[in-house]
From TrEMBL:
GO molecular function: microtubule binding
Domain Katanin p80 subunit C-terminal: from-to ranges: 509-667
Cellular-component GO terms for this entry: katanin complex; microtubule
Residue ranges with Low complexity bias: 444-461
Originating species: Pinctada imbricata (Atlantic pearl-oyster)
GO annotation terms (biological process): microtubule depolymerization; microtubule severing
PANTHER family: KATANIN P80 SUBUNIT, KATANIN P80 WD40 REPEAT-CONTAINING SUBUNIT B1
InterPro entries, alphabetized: Katanin_C-terminal, KTNB1, WD40/YVTN_repeat-like_dom_sf, WD40_PAC1, WD40_repeat_CS, WD40_repeat_dom_sf, WD40_rpt
Chief localization: cytoplasm
Lineage of origin: Eukaryota, Metazoa, Spiralia, Lophotrochozoa, Mollusca
Keywords: Cytoplasm, Cytoskeleton, Microtubule, Repeat, WD repeat
Sequence ranges of the WD repeats: 2-34, 45-86, 87-128, 129-170, 171-212
Ranges of Basic and acidic residues composition bias in the record: 352-361, 407-417
Name used for this protein in its record: Katanin p80 subunit C-terminal domain-containing protein
Length: 671
C-alpha cells in the first residue's frame, strides 16, 4: 500500500505479460509506472493537460497509452523514453483502452458514446464506431485482432467487425450498465460483467448466451480469464470468485478487503490484484495453488480437463505489414490528428529509478550473454500462531484487519482436510508443523512484496479459552473504547459502568435507528404498491410527498438501473429533488443524484433545448403547449443545478469530482 499520486488516483492497470509492472493515472495529470511490490515510482510520464482517466500497457510492456478527461490519448515508448503520439478526436472522457494483438493499433471507448480505432504509426483515427446510446465503459480486441467488443452504460455489449467497419451484433440480456468485457484467450467465447451483479457468457459462433452467474452482492467491476482458459476470475467488492461457464458454477470464493478491485493479472501461478482509494494504491497476491479448481496441487500446463467443442480463434500473426493494413478500413471523414505537443519529448519523462527502468524497459540493451533475471513468485511470510497473527494485524490498517477477520471466517468453513489460505499477511519467525507444534525457522530477508494476509495454520494451535477482546489482545479494538468509562453515582465519586447501564445505552441508539428504518420501510412499501400497479408517475409523486430524502434516493437508484423508465414527466418531477440531494452531506446521496442527472441530460437535454428554441406553432396544440411548459420548468431547474455543480465541482476530487465534471460537460450541451 503506497501513495501513488499527489492527488486522487483515477485508474490502475497491471501488465498482462509479466504481472510485475503497474501503471497509474491521477488527478495530477501524470502517468506513473511502478514495479509491483515496490513503493518507489520507476518513471513519471507528463504531458496531459487534464486528469488521466484510463491507462493500458502494450502486450510486450514496451508502450503505455493513457486517456484523459478531455478525450485526448497519449502513447509513450517506454524503451526509447519518448512520447510517440498525441491522438485527439473524442469529445468527452476516455473510459477504456486496449492495444491490438499486433501492437500497431489501439482502441478507445469514451463517455461521448463512441468507440475509436487508432493507427499509432500514422497518428490518426482509422474508424469511429457509433451505436452506443450512453458512455462506453470498456473496449477489448479479440485474440485474433478482427473484432472489438464494447460494453456500455446502455446495458449493451456490442461486437464490431474491424474489417467490415460495422456492427456484428448486440448482446442484450444485461439489465444494468455493462462495466467490463473479456474475450476467452482461445475459444470463441466472451464474458461480460454488469452492474446488475451478474456475469454472462456468450458463444461468439451464434452470438447466444451460454450461461449466467447468480446475482452477486455488488456490481461486477473486473473479470479475467485464466491464461489457459480453464476458468474465469471475478473481482467484486471485498471478494475474489472463480467461475466455470458450462455449466455455470462458482468454484471458490476468497474474501479479500481490496474494496473495488481495478485490475487483475496472473504470473508465476499467482494472481495479482490492484485497487485504489483516493491517493493510495494497494496490491494483493493470491496463490492459485490453494484456490479451486487448482486447489492443493500445482496447476499443470494445459490443466483444463473440460473438453469443449467450441471453435477457437486463429491467432497466428499475418505475415506482412501490408496484409494487416489492408484488413483495416479507412474512414474518410476522420483526418489524421497532428502531434502538437510531441516536440516537448524531453519534458514528458521523469525517470526516478534508473536501475529498475533499465532492468524492465530496456532489456534489449544488455549484452546477449548477460544473465537474465528470472521472475520469482512473491514469497509469503511464514505462518505463526493465532496470537502472533493477531498482534501483527492489530498494528496495521483497518483494511488489513478486515481481511484477517474474513480469513478467520473462511478457516471455519474448511473441511477436515483443510487447505491453507491463498492469502498471507503477517511475517514471523516460527512455522507450524503438521502435528501442531512450533519449530524455529530462519527469518527470510525483508522483501517489498505486495501486502498479503496470514490465516491460522491448517491445524489450529491449542490456546487458552477466549476471555474477551481485552484479555486476549491488549491492542485489539474493544467495546469499552466506545462507552463511558464511569458514571456519577450521585455524589462526587464515580464508579465503573455496569453491564445493565451499558445495555441500556446500546438499546437507546438501537431503538432510535429501528424506528427510522421501520418508517423508511413503510414508505417504500407504499411506493412499491403504487409502482407494481403500473402507475410509475403516481408512485414517484407519492415518494416526493413523503419528503424523505432516503426514499427519493432509493427510487433514483432503481430508475438509474432501468433507464428506459425515464420520461419527460418524471424528469420534470424529480429535477427539484435531485437539486436538493446535490446539497446533501451524504456522498451516496450526491452520487445517486449525479447519476440520475446524467441520464436526464443525455435522454432529454436535446428535447428540452429543441422545444425552447422551436418557433411557435400555428393554431392550438395542447400537447405541444404542455410539453413546452414541462421543458421550461426543467430548464429553470437545470439552470439552478448548473450553479450548484459549478460550486461543488471545484471543491471535490475523486469519484465525486469526476461525476461533477461529467455533468458539467452534459450541461454545456444545453447552452
Amino acid at each position: 500500500e503506497f501513495v501513488a499520486h499527489a492527488n486522487n488516483v483515477n485508474c490502475v492497470a497491471l501488465s498482462q505479460k509479466s504481472a510485475r509492472v503497474m501503471v497509474t493515472g491521477g488527478e495530477d495529470r501524470k502517468v506513473n509506472l511502478w514495479v509491483v511490490g515496490k513503493p518507489n515510482c520507476v518513471m513519471s510520464l507528463c504531458g496531459h493537460t487534464t486528469p488521466v482517466e484510463a491507462v493500458r500497457f502494450g502486450h510486450e510492456e514496451e508502450m503505455v497509452v493513457a486517456g484523459s478527461l478531455s478525450g485526448a490519448l497519449k502513447v509513450w515508448d517506454l524503451e526509447q523514453a519518448k512520447i510517440m503520439r498525441t491522438l485527439t478526436g473524442h469529445t468527452s472522457s476516455i473510459k477504456s483502452l486496449d492495444f491490438h494483438p499486433y501492437g500497431d493499433y489501439c482502441t478507445s471507448g469514451s463517455m461521448d458514446c463512441n468507440v475509436k480505432l487508432w493507427d499509432i504509426r500514422k497518428k490518426g483515427c482509422i474508424y469511429t464506431y457509433r451505436g452506443h446510446k450512453n458512455g462506453v465503459n470498456c473496449v477489448r480486441f479479440s485474440p485474433d485482432g478482427k473484432w472489438i467488443a464494447s460494453a456500455g452504460e446502455d446495458n449493451l455489449v456490442k461486437i464490431w467487425d474491424i474489417t467490415a467497419g460495422k456492427i456484428l451484433t448486440d448482446l442484450t440480456y444485461h439489465r444494468g450498465p455493462v462495466n467490463i468485457v473479456e474475450f476467452h484467450p482461445n475459444e470463441l467465447l466472451l464474458a461480460s460483467g454488469s452492474s446488475d451483479r451478474t456475469i454472462k457468457f456468450w458463444d461468439l459462433e451464434n452470438f447466444e448466451m451460454v450461461s449466467t452467474t447468480n446475482n452477486d452482492s455488488s456490481p461486477i467491476r473486473r473479470i479475467f480469464f485464466h491464461p489457459e482458459g480453464s476458468c474465469l476470475f471475478s473481482g467484486v467488492k471485498d471478494m475474489l470468485k472463480v467461475y466455470s461457464w458450462e455449466p455455470s458454477k462458482c468454484y471458490d470464493s476468497i474474501p479479500i478487503a481490496w474494496g473495488e478491485v481495478c485490475d487483475i493479472a496472473i504470473g508465476q501461478n499467482q494472481l495479482i490484484g490492484a485497487s485504489l482509494s483516493q491517493t493510495i494504491v494497494s496490491t494483493y497476491v493470491v496463490d492459485l495453488k490453494r484456490v479451486q479448481p487448482f486447489g492443493g496441487v500445482p496447476h499443470q500446463e494445459g490443466g483444463n480437463n473440460l473438453s469443449s467443442s467450441r471453435n477457437k480463434f486463429i491467432t497466428e500473426r499475418p505475415p506482412t505489414q501490408s496484409s494487416r493494413q489492408a484488413s483495416i478500413p479507412k474512414e474518410s471523414d476522420d483526418e489524421p490528428t497532428q502531434d502538437k505537443e510531441d516536440a516537448d519529448d524531453s519534458m514528458s519523462f521523469d525517470i526516478k529509478n534508473p536501475e529498475d527502468y533499465r532492468e524492465i524497459f530496456q532489456p534489449k540493451s544488455r549484452l546477449s550473454h548477460s544473465p537474465h533475471r528470472q521472475m520469482e513468485p512473491f514469497q509469503p511470510p511464514l505462518d505463526d500462531g493465532m496470537s502472533q497473527a493477531k498482534k501483527s494485524v492489530s498494528i496495521t490498517s483497518p483494511r488489513v484487519t478486515s481481511v484477517k477477520r474474513a480469513n478467520s471466517t473462511e478457516h471455519v468453513r474448511k473441511s477436515s482436510a483443510e487447505r491453507p489460505s491463498p492469502l498471507r499477511k503477517s511475517r514471523s519467525t516460527k512455522s507450524i508443523t503438521d502435528d501442531g507444534d512450533t519449530e524455529p525457522v530462519k527469518q527470510p530477508a525483508p522483501s517489498r512484496a505486495p501486502k498479503a494476509v496470514s490465516k491460522p495454520a491448517a491445524k489450529p494451535v491449542s490456546k487458552p479459552p477466549w476471555k474477551g477482546p481485552i484479555d486476549d489482545d491488549k491492542s485489539a479494538i474493544s467495546p469499552e473504547d466506545f462507552l463511558p468509562k464511569s458514571v456519577n453515582a450521585g455524589g462526587d465519586t464515580n464508579r465503573p459502568v455496569t453491564e445493565m447501564e451499558t445495555l441500556t445505552l446500546l438499546r437507546g441508539g438501537h431503538n432510535a435507528m429501528s424506528q427510522v428504518l421501520s418508517h423508511r420501510s413503510k414508505n417504500l412499501q407504499i411506493v412499491r404498491a403504487m409502482w407494481t400497479s403500473g402507475n410509475t408517475k403516481t408512485a414517484v409523486d407519492s415518494a416526493i410527498s413523503m419528503k424523505d430524502p432516503s426514499v427519493i434516493v432509493d427510487l433514483l437508484n432503481v430508475l438509474n438501473l432501468k433507464s428506459g423508465l425515464w420520461s419527460l414527466d418524471l424528469t420534470s418531477s424529480l429535477l427539484p429533488q435531485v437539486k436538493d440531494l446535490l446539497d446533501s452531506k451524504y456522498d451516496s446521496y450526491v452520487i445517486s443524484a449525479c447519476e440520475a442527472l446524467k441520464i436526464m441530460l443525455r435522454n432529454f437535454g436535446p428535447v428540452i433545448k429543441s422545444n425552447l428554441t422551436a418557433p411557435p406553432s400555428v393554431g392550438v396544440d395542447i400537447s405541444r403547449e404542455e410539453r413546452y411548459k414541462k421543458c421550461t420548468q426543467c430548464y429553470k431547474e437545470v439552470s439552478l443545478i448548473r450553479g450548484i455543480i459549478a460550486t461543488k465541482g471545484g471543491q471535490n476530487t475523486g469519484k465525486l469530482g469526476q461525476l461533477f465534471r461529467e455533468v458539467q460537460i452534459l450541461l454545456a450541451s444545453m447552452d
